[in-house]
Amino acid sequence: MIKTWEQLKGHSEQRELFRRSLQRGRLSHAYVLAGPEGIGKRQFARLMANSVFCREYELSELQVCGECRACRGFAAGTWPDFIEIGVPAGKNVIPISLIAGETTDGKRGREGLCYELSVSPQASDRRVAVINDAGLMNTESANALLKTLEEPPAHSLILLVCDNPDTLLPTIRSRCQIVRFFPLNEADVQEILLAEEIVESPEEAASIASLCEGSLETARQLLHPELRKLKATVARQLNQMEGMKPLEVAASVTAGIEEMSSNTPEQRQNAQWLLRFVADAIRARLQGLAGGDLSDPLTQRLGARNGVDLLAPMLDRTLAASRQVDGMSPVKLVMEALFDELARMIRQAMKRA
Length: 353
Hints:
Elements: H1 12-23, E1 30-34, H2 41-53, H3 69-76, E2 82-85, H4 96-100, H5 113-118, E3 127-131, H6 139-150, E4 156-162, H7 170-173, E5 177-180, H8 186-195, H9 202-211, H10 216-222, H11 225-239, H12 246-260, H13 264-290, H14 297-302, H15 304-326, H16 331-352
Parallel strand pairs: 1-4, 1-5, 2-3, 3-4
Helix pairs in contact: 8-9, 11-12, 11-13, 12-16, 13-15, 15-16
């Protein structure tokens, strides 16, 4: 768990934006932290809250010491002036009970996030609330929060974390300042993957970082055991040259994608990742040939020129398959056609060699 700003990768511009606002005394009462999933928005929000409470630094410095009573209490999850909510386990929305309390026991308006914000701080100058996955508030929840945003307590700071601000009610967006966050760079992703021991080697970290588009959540999806097994299967088949068994490969790949996918959109996303693996493997071989690397078994069998003549059309065919999946073609049919065509290309190239 990230406990200091120095441990947070990226987002230095966003931090500087908040620091300037603090130095000018222009901190707003509510912000939307918006950007792709898995890039550190929640950690940023928590560091913002911790900075409000830290007693060793002025708030305008936007820093945390990690050692004072407030920082220790915050890290332990016991600091009384911090409220954090999100989608409850097993649910797909943020219910109004978390925002304004339950109705069944007469506590509506006397508990929940809005009530907690209205109470005077117990140990700090402000109360800070973080709403994770804020775009998943239902209509009741959003309208209840809107009342607090319209008349915010003077001692409050509300941070709404979401992937897309358009999922929020326009009336909520209009009462918040939107701060946009962007994907992490590949070097930062590699460092995090290795530091948190998510991958086993620098080579694997580099490979995943190049594919995950700056999102640790996407990186974790790419490391799904079933997807890794499918990647290994495809790599092994591509290395067999004329021995590739296209129908077996397509059947194995399709079954694996279906097993690890809970719905059709997820199935298409996993199919796209697999096609990306195939394209990257072919592209890496092409780059090796362009750089004069003649150690690849394909080059040894075909020669550099014939290798390029084979690999370039294979890459084009794989990219075409990706477009077909985007175009809503059945994943199974796309995979069968792709691997059949790749096997045919390899057999023809071997005959010409």
